[in-house]
Amino acid sequence: MKGFRGRIKAINDQVENHIKNEHLFYHKEIEEHHGQYVVIGRKKYINFTSYSYLGLLGHPRISMAAKDAIEKYGSGTHGVRILAGTTSLHVELEKRIAEFKNTETAVTFSSGYVANLTTISTMCGRGDAIFCDMINHASIVDGCLLSSAKFVRFKHNDMSDLRKKLEETEAIGRMIVVDAVFSMDGDIVPLPEIIELAKEFDCLVYVDEAHSTGVLGENGHGIMEHFGLTDGVDIQMGTLSKVIPAVGGYIAGNKEIINWLKYQSRAFVFSAALPPGATAAAKASFDVIDDEQRRVVKLRENIAYFIKSLNQAGFDTGNTETAVVPIILKDEWRTLEATRELFDKGIFVMPILQPAVPPNTSRLRANVTAEHTKEDIDYMVDTLANVWKQFGFND
Ligand code: PMP
Asked: Which of the listed residues 156, 182, 241, 365 should we mutate to test ligand 1's pocket, taking the one with most ligand atoms within 8 A of CB?
């Protein structure tokens, strides 16, 4: 283990090395966002990095709701809600989330990361066990680590491994925590099977819907709608920073659990409320999803078309069925070179490398949205196929 100076130098050497090889794609300065485009260095790029899967970022009705709220309540947060009260905006948003997710009630936090961290670490403690899919999001992992509960990881989407781990435990409280859609792979959790196991082994079920709300289900209401379920999940977590173009996170569930979080979770009790602009924008976004269902339909069509086109061109997209489309190029250098070539040709997409993904599965993570046109998708796939051929990477 290096001292602080050594650690600082190591990370900066790595950054320098990427700059030297023209491989530094992170932290790009975005000058403008226009639908499916971004402007970087005064040049327009087709954006395949957006989380605004339904294209709601910049939606006039949502932006107007934020402006009106700022006009009425000011730009900043009014304080910590347990002490400073809850504004009507927060009451309305939490009611709307509960309605959208078909739960009794909901509570919001300052980010999705914080929602996971604080909820898991509030609800679980010494003597409990948390069963966590191996590739769950970092915020879930951090919540588990902070909780002092036994942290049991099961193989990705492997129900027999989960069963084996459940059989081995003697914990007091048990919780199974999963992503609905996995953030690096885009595949979907087999939720009905998880619920069955949870019933058999008396576990709570916690699902992170960061990449499924607005994406899965006939009307875009998420994983429960996707599988036609009305119960079986105790905690539905979501973010207000992806399909919902605001910032924040939420937990939806029954009144008892939400009350517990409102009185005991440190991120609620010791941290300020969402600011008014974000709160009102989030509420308006749920209304827009329900009122503009064509966006959900278009996204579904674009997902199918993008995955099919990539596969036909010979690219491996793993098991994705959603807007997160991994283009698995395996080799790190080739992935970085492909990113650079695509960027030169007007496509903005990010490389994902080890340790974010396992060795030899380096990939481009291309997020497709309802705003991409068929021409955008064709251009992306054709350009990547040409780059690949030109480099002779199939050899
Ligand atoms: N969960 C998952 C699965 C995510 O992908 C993310 C964000 N990348 C989060 C939680 C955290 O959400 P936020 O960005 O709102 O903090």
From this structure: 241
Examine residue 190 and say whether the peptide bond preceding it is cis (omega within 30 degrees of 0).
no
Longest dimension (CA), the chain: 65
Q: Which domains can be identified in the chain, with CATH numbers? A: 22-51+293-390 (3.90.1150.10), 60-291 (3.40.640.10)
The pLDDT-based confidence of 20 (bands split at 50, 70, 90) is: confident
**Closest by alpha carbon to 113, among 121, 124, 125, 105?**
121
Burial class from Cβ neighbours inside 10 Å (0-12, 13-18, 19+) for residue 145 reads middle
Which tens digit of pLDDT belongs to each residue from 40-56? 999 999 999 999 999 99
Structure tokens at 390: 């030109």
Mutation test of ligand 1: which of 52, 114, 132, 137 has the most ligand atoms closer than 8 Å to its C-beta? 137
Q: Is residue 137 within a helix (H) or strand (E), and if so which, with residue range?
A: none
199 C-alpha to center of ligand 1: Å? 27
Q: Note the pLDDT tens digit of each residue in 308-322.
A: 999 999 999 999 999
CA distances from 235 to 82, 101, 122, 169, 270 (A): 21, 11, 13, 22, 22
For residues 298-315, give the mean pLDDT.
98
Element housing 33 (H / E): strand 32-34
Full-prediction pTM beyond 0.85? Answer: yes
The Å distance, Cα 390 to ligand 1 centre, comes to 36
Which tokens in the block code for residue 204? 């709570």
**Dist CA 19 CA 367 (whole Å):** 25
184 CB-near residues (< 8 Å, 6+ apart): 135, 324, 326, 352, 356, 357, 363, 365
Evaluate: CB of 113 within 6 angstroms of ligand 1: yes
Buried b / exposed e along 96-107 (16+ C-beta atoms within 10 A):
bbbebbebebbb
226 counts as catalytic: no
